[in-house]
Design goal:
The protein has three domains: 5-120 and 162-185, HUPs (Rossmann fold); 211-268, Adenine nucleotide alpha hydrolases-like domains (SH3 type barrels, Roll); 273-350, Translation factors (Elongation Factor Tu (Ef-tu), domain 3, Beta Barrel), CATH 2.40.30.10. Helix content is 26%, strand content 29%. The chain has eight helices and 17 strands. The chain has a six-stranded antiparallel barrel.
Length: 351
């Protein structure tokens, strides 16, 4: 339970369906001492835990607060920062979900003798021929199946997604009908939970594991190899990021390639970042354990991107993905997730 409208209404729905419900919230990162006396973006997770506890009290269900800061630091934050140090673009939710929200919470569920875990994610769980997989949510604008592609068969079969068949407006109406008007008007958080001010550069620069060379000034070159400027440190940039060069008459170029070893950025016009193909690694199958060569699918490389028709081919430990249309800024480290008829069939990391 996050204290927000989605996980709260999920708990309400489960109670109405006759489940015995236990609420669990977890602390994922250290809060500054100021959170004891004041409110700030850095205290948002702590405030949400208080809200979740209050809701559980109103629903007359037990509420447990777990301290997962050591696990979160080891399994999520360190990999998130390391991906940037390697010049890649990670999605922290995709790192966190199989390891913390399912991996660690299922351990606690076993300790509490709970059969399932339920979340407020907008996705629908399906089963066919002994395999568990996700389908896109009824509310296309809220569908979150993209960030759940790494969930294993064991994790999926012990999951419940109460909100998958509803739209966000229906969920707000349910909250109001049950007397929880405050949930319906509560601001939704779109930031990374451990970077509540959304300042990636600040966060990365504060980490002890970041070497001095990585956050020092480096060179920017164009696609011909000409030096055209300097940057403040390659981990602070991602493929597709816009950079304005005032010395070139306010010209705007985009990061096309990051060379972590040389602390070097290559920039180019936007059209140079349009691609019709890429490779992925670490494929995880949901509806199908593996994909046949030449399978026609739909894919997206960012959660809010539209689906694009594609064909996949197996090439050893990797898969080659051919797109029907061009997409902008295919970034190593991002996830490509594959769908067919609205069903999530699998995904992998772009290389």
């Amino acid at each position: 339970m996050s204290g927000g409208i989605d996980s709260s209404v999920a708990a309400l729905l489960l109670l109405e369906q006759g489940f015995e419900v236990l609420g669990i919230s977890f602390r994922s990162y250290a809060y500054p001492p100021a959170c004891q006396t004041t409110s700030s973006p850095y205290c948002s997770n702590l405030d949400s835990i208080h809200d979740a506890r209050s809701l559980a009290l109103k629903l007359n269900i037990p509420h447990y607060e777990l301290d997962l800061k050591p696990e979160f630091e080891k399994l999520v934050i360190r990999e998130f920062v390391n991906e940037y140090l390697e010049g890649r673009t990670p999605n922290p939710c995709i790192i966190c979900n199989p390891r913390i929200k399912w991996g660690e919470l299922l351990k606690r569920a076993d300790q509490l003798d709970c059969e399932f875990i339920a979340t407020g994610h907008y996705a629908q769980l399906m089963e066919s021929d002994g395999r568990w997989y996700l389908a896109q949510a009824s509310d296309e604008n809220k569908d979150q199946s993209y960030v759940l592609w790494r969930l294993s068969q064991e994790q999926l079969k012990r999951s419940i997604f109460p909100l998958g068949a509803y739209t966000k407006s229906q969920i707000r109406s349910m909250a109001i009908a049950k007397g929880f008007n405050n949930l319906a008007i509560k601001r939704e958080s779109y930031e990374i939970c451990f970077i509540p001010d959304n300042d990636y550069s600040r966060f990365i620069g504060e980490q002890d594991m970041v070497p001095a060379r990585a956050i020092g000034q480096g060179t920017i070159i164009d696609i011909e190899g000409n030096t055209i400027g300097n940057h403040k440190g390659y981990p602070y940039y991602t493929v597709g990021q816009k950079i304005t060069f005032k010395s070139k008459g306010e010209s705007i170029l985009f990061v096309k390639h990051i060379n972590a070893g040389k602390n070097l950025l290559m920039v180019a016009p936007r059209e140079s970042l349009m691609d019709k193909g890429f490779y992925i690694k670490d494929f995880n199958g949901q509806k199908y354990e593996s994909l046949t060569d030449g399978l026609k699918v739909q894919t997206k490389i960012r959660q809010k991107d539209p689906l694009t028709d594609a064909i996949v081919y197996n090439e050893g430990s990797r898969m080659r993905v051919e797109l029907q249309d061009y997409v902008f800024a295919v970034a190593p480290g991002q996830s490509a997730v594959f769908y067919k008829d609205g069903h999530l069939i699998g995904g992998g990391f772009i290389v």
